[in-house]
Amino acid sequence: MMGPYGSFDGGMGWGGWVAMGFALVIFWGLVITGIVLLVRSLGHRHEVAVGPPGPTTALRILDERFARGDIDADEYSRRRQLLGAV
Asked: Could you read off the pLDDT of 61-80 as tens digits, one per residue?
């Protein structure tokens, strides 16, 4: 039946309802994606070391190797002298 605003007594017809359904799904998909990306970017803050590792890092590794028993006391002393930490 034809009304003053077109067919179906002023309704948009099935094509309008389908288009509105797709637009609604796309809208909520974008909202959810935005929230997920925001939460992920706020939750994953990584500390980045600037510059090369210094002698303190090398000494710490040497101490750990000695503590594990990877090197003996003579090797440990010799390498500490090479690193300049007498």
From this structure: 999 999 999 999 999 999 99
| Tokens 């609604």, residue located | 24
Helices (H) and strands (E) in the chain, counts: 3, 2
Domain residue ranges of the chain, discontinuous segments joined by +: 2-43, 49-86
CA dihedral 15, 16, 17, 22 (to 10 degrees): 90
Rounded to whole angstroms, the Cα distance separating 55 from 62 reads 10
Residue 44 is given by DSSP the state -
Distance of CA 68 to the CA centre of its chain: 34
> What would the two tokens of residue 51 be?
């510059």
Query: What's the predicted TM-score (pTM) here?
Result: 0.41
Mean residue pLDDT across the chain: 82
Strands 2-3 and 6-7: antiparallel
24: tokens are: 């609604």
Q: Centre a 10 Å sphere on the Cβ of residue 62 and count the other Cβ atoms it contains.
A: 20
